[in-house]
């Protein structure tokens, strides 16, 4: 039977929180505590810490992370390194960035790992951002660990947690770890120290924290910055420190979780044409949920915190972006863009009623373009048969001092700059906005309804020259 890896993703949108130190040393500890367990580590960051720690002198390399992302089996690219840990050599950002377009679908990396031939545990160290590779690493993970060291890194957790929830991850599969805790810092009152304070803020936000934390340690810092130019593991070079025991507890906790998992995620979601498995529609639906924007493009509010009123689903014609819009936001945008009316305008109520009724019956297509040096946006509305029923062109650079017009432009730019950056001359992708049931908006992502969305979009695509 082909092996499938159990994937641990280390992620944080904030740099300097000890993410790579956590990833590398967990790999060493897991391998040492269970010698029969294969452990492989790879990184999407470009600092080459993993290579410095695990590469053997004179070792002949036969591939890097780039080749893995291009489709070569990861099992054939993994090199046995120091401390018995397998590693896939790193690549520079310049070599990885051109591949990001391939990973717009958040399932892509999971599929590669599912077919990788890598047994045991795979640890993925990600960049301090949520680019396409980080999103793929989160989607592929059986366990996500998020190191936090201060309130800034705590605040940055919300985007990672929102993504994990969108793709249906069990909350217990994602945990925060207070890192680089300076135990000399003490507070008066209920929150006695840094770790207690961070855990309290995490609990208020509904985030799970591991029981163990990682202390700030000059000894550990010296393992990565020293005259030798090498990187040493805590297991072998920091015995007697608190951090030594803390990493051991974290690794033991992960092994307990691993033992309780009947089979890794890759084995039942991502093996193509697997027999006696869930149909591919299940993975497709999860991927669509994972790919959703975490906020309304018009008002910017996080949908996890303001989920009510999501009456419209949008998707770009190239399927690169998708998400939900609040009904009030989208109807206000239409009313302002098509009729030049805001809440202070006379007749606004009637105009908003008309715009809302039309939007709830039809598919609205927004198509930006640059014509003769002028930015414009075409608004078109189609019925379920793809027939064009309404069309209006709106100039984006009308100028003037009118605050209402400035507000219209602001709202248009908010949605277009993120979903459809205005291209040069001619037309690029367009944005289709579909009405959905605000009580059950996610139902549009289910297979039958999603096919209906793409049916009408294919009809619209065939008539794209009309708008």
TrEMBL record:
Alphabetized Pfam families for the sequence: CbiA
Lineage: superkingdom: Bacteria
Transmembrane spans: none
Domain annotation CobQ/CobB/MinD/ParA nucleotide binding: ranges: 8-221
Descriptive protein name: ParA family protein
């Amino acid at each position: 039977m082909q092996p499938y890896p159990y994937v641990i993703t280390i992620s944080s949108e904030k740099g300097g929180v000890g993410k790579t130190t956590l990833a590398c040393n967990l790999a060493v500890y897991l391998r040492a505590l269970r010698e029969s367990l294969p452990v492989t580590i790879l990184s999407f960051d470009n600092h080459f810490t993993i290579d410095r720690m695990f590469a053997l002198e004179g070792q002949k390399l036969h591939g890097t992370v780039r080749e893995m992302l291009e489709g070569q089996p990861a099992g054939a690219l993994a090199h046995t390194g120091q401390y018995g840990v397998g590693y896939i050599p790193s690549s520079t950002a310049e070599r990885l960035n051109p591949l990001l377009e391939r990973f717009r679908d958040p399932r892509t990396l999971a599929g590669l790992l599912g077919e990788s031939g890598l047994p045991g545990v795979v640890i993925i160290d990600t960049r301090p951002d949520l680019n396409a590779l980080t999103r793929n690493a989160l989607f592929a993970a059986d366990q996500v660990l998020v190191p936090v060291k201060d309130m800034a890194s705590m605040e940055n957790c919300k985007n990672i947690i929102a993504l994990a929830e969108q793709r249906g991850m069990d909350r217990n599969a994602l945990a925060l770890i207070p890192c680089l805790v300076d135990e000399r810092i003490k507070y008066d009152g209920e929150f006695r120290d840094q770790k207690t304070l961070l855990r309290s803020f995490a609990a208020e936000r509904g985030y799970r924290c591991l029981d163990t934390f990682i202390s700030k340690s000059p000894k550990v810092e010296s393992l990565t910055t020293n005259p030798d130019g090498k990187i040493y593991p805590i297991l072998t070079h920091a015995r007697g420190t608190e951090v030594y025991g803390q990493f051991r507890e974290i690794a033991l906790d992960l092994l307990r979780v691993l033992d309780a998992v009947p089979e890794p995620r890759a084995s039942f979601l991502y093996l193509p044409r697997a027999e006696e498995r869930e149909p591919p529609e299940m993975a497709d639906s999860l991927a669509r949920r994972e790919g959703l924007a975490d906020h309304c493009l018009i008002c910017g509010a996080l949908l996890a915190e303001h989920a009510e009123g999501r009456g419209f689903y949008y998707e770009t014609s190239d399927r690169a972006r998708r998400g939900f819009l609040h009904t009030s936001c989208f109807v206000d945008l239409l009313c302002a863009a098509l009729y030049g009316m805001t809440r202070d305008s006379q007749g606004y109520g009637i105009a908003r009623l008309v715009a809302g009724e039309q939007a709830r019956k039809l598919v609205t297509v927004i198509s930006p373009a640059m014509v003769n040096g002028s930015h414009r946006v075409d608004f078109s509305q189609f019925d379920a048969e793809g027939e064009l029923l309404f069309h209006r062109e709106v100039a984006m650079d009308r100028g003037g001092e009118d605050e209402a017009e400035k507000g219209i432009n602001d709202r248009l730019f908010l949605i277009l700059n993120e979903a459809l950056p205005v291209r040069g001359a001619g037309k690029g992708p367009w944005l289709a906005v579909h009405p959905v049931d605000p009580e059950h908006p996610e139902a549009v992502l289910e297979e039958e309804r999603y096919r209906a969305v793409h049916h009408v979009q294919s009809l619209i695509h065939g008539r794209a020259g009309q708008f």
